[in-house]
């Protein structure tokens, strides 16, 4: 699991990422990034719609899979706030795609 220091953005931080960001998209994810001058580490939040996975168990499983993948590639991310939006095609693909970006 990704270290706690790299996980969890508050509502205000997530709103700030949505307000001003650069985005990267692929078949499974949309990754929004906001550069923060004072930030020394990358911090992540994963957002999954209830329309995509109705049960919390399924949403949490997806989050764990994504956090594990991020942990493997953590050194590739520059400091800042990241919000990962999971798309519907993610749930249809098993196992987790090898590359987030």
From TrEMBL:
One of its GO terms (molecular function) is ribonuclease P activity. The keyword ATP-binding does not apply. It is an enzyme of class 3 (hydrolase). GO terms for cellular component: ribonuclease P complex. It comes from the Bacteria. InterPro entries: Ribosomal_Su5_D2-typ_SF (IPR020568), Ribsml_uS5_D2-typ_fold_subgr (IPR014721), RNase_P (IPR000100). Keywords: Endonuclease, Hydrolase, Nuclease, RNA-binding, tRNA processing. Its EC number is 3.1.26.5. PANTHER family: RIBONUCLEASE P PROTEIN COMPONENT. This is Ribonuclease P protein component. It comes from Candidatus Woesebacteria bacterium RIFOXYA1_FULL_43_9. The lineage of its organism: Bacteria, Candidatus Woeseibacteriota.
